[in-house]
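lol so apparently i was supposed to do this last week
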Amino acid sequence: MNIPMVDLKGQYESLKDEIDSSILQALSETRFILGPNVQSFDKEAAEYLGAKHAISCANGTDALHLALLAAGIQPGDEVITTAFTFIATAEAIRYIGAIPVFVDIQPQSLNIDPDRIRAAITDKTRAILPVHLFGQAADMNEIQAIADEFGLLIIEDCAQSFGARYQGKTTGTLGCVGAFSFFPSKNLGCYGDGGMVTTNDDELASRVRMLRNHGSSKQYHHDVIGFNSRLDELQAVILRIKLKHIDDYNRKRLEVARTYNQLLAGSRFTTPNIPPDRDHVFHQYTLLCDERDKLRETILAQDIACAVYYPIPLHQQQAFHDTEQPQLPVTESVAQRCLSFPIFPEMTSAQIETVCEALLAAK
Ligand SMILES: Cc1ncc(COP(=O)(O)O)c(C=O)c1O
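anyway here it is w/ pyridoxal-5'-phosphate bound
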């Protein structure tokens, strides 16, 4: 049985009539830049997340970049983050000449370890940038306590956590600003690139609105040098439709993960934990195991997808060779042992069982 990592085709088929007719409607209206669907999506996303402002933009990398700029991060500032993430997290820090300072992760959650943050703080530290990796919120109370103690900002990378909650509050509303990605394979994904910044701070929101549109708050008046980073109207059409289903999608992902955990209980694999105080939205279902590469080959040979997120932590990437090389033993061990398996809302019990049978039979 061929089992893909995600089934975007199946999801499109289930929404096809609404998506096709709404796209045709947007085409006939021809308001392609910051049109009515972008404006409505910004309102609807803010309402869904419980954020005062949601400002869509061109992609998740830009969302991080705009968030850092609007939060006032300056060249030379240090931003504490994780090395076990997609490169965009730290790329955005470098875009403004700030310095990513990598600290280790927790072996259970794979998120930044708050106990390691204090030792990384210097007089240049301005912010902490946790990533809610694979759909699970980081330890925000502990991170907030450190931020309060040292007067630091919290900038959340929510690229993988749309709809995830921490003690009832959605990610993207826990720090001073949040950054989301709508890359097609994300929990809320569009059909191209898309991103969004969230904040409860009115001034920060108006800076992001300006920055995404050439530094302009009024047509042909440019207060600052900004960017062309607007969400496309057609992507907004798709996101508005999918947003109506996001709770259902996230609930189904959680069910898939729970079933995987049950079927793999007691095996040689370390399954993801699901803490009771946060709603995990399982952007990825990731196991830890020994002899990972051998397992990967065995599973792929059975036409079952699996993938390594992330094989090379950021502090070991050539792009960061000029950044201080910290010792990150948990990050380095997890990068050798992690393997992610198919998870998507449409996944059937038969598909989950097939993956687990292959895993349990693998030598
Ligand atoms: C953790 C993380 N941060 C940032 C990004 C960047 O998002 P985008 O690909 O939309 O630029 C991604 C996704 O690709 C991501 O997974």
